[in-house]
Specification:
The chain has 247 residues and is an alpha+beta fold. The chain has 3 domains: 45 residues; 89 residues, Homing endonucleases (Endonuclease I-creI, Roll), CATH 3.10.28; 75 residues, Roll (Endonuclease I-creI), CATH 3.10.28. 45% of the residues lie in helices and 24% in strands. The strands form 2 sheets. A 4-stranded antiparallel beta sheet has the order 1-2-4-3. A hairpin with a 5-residue loop joins strand 1 and strand 2. The protein starts with a helix and ends with a helix.
Amino acid sequence: MHNLSTRKRALAMVSQGRSLNSVSHETGISRAAIRSWQHRLEPLPRMASPAPGPHADDHAYTYLLGLCLGDGCISPHRRSGYYLRIACADAWPGLIELCREAIARARPGIGIYTQQKQGCVMITSYSPHWPQLFPRHGPGKKHDRSIALQSWQQALVDEHPWEFVRGLIHSDGCRIINWTTRMVRGERKRYEYPRYFFTNLSADIIRLFTTSLDQVGVEWRQPNPRDISVAKKASVALMDLHLGPKY
């Protein structure tokens, strides 16, 4: 039998991101016992409170938040803990590496692996803390439920708005070249210009995106409920400067 302080010490080590294997090896307590304590004991303060969240890098977390709102989901492990999964299209190998790097920086030492799907790679990582880091996870589609940031998340987005915008664009956005024609001295000429698009079915996620665009001084318009367009030359140049290519 282990006393309460021993149990809390083991759970505290797990709450810091340690694997059950490493905690078991260091303490001599079986993984099964530690797993059962996770369900039987009251959560420790660090495990219960997300503010400011068990992450190590604010920039990486804020970028990862944008990615997760677009193409991420959290699902429970069949025994305990949770999986974070983020889908990245095969067409963007650079994005796959950026996603892996963001997870590693936000949660140093955590395991990350990829699973090839048809047309995309599923980047997956296990941690008991994912619901704390992304508390708006839940069953069903994002646009069918309310999406709102907690106060500590909003503070990070306010402090690092470009990282948030970058994550959203890298998940559900693109930079394209549009073209149009116009008459010049009786001759029809073709003009090309770059434009950013962001598409999401969730009105809440659209609002979070446009609020951050307002904060950084990017002009945008909404041609329909699911799309945001950035086409003004100065705004496109500003996004080019801060976002970098999606590749």
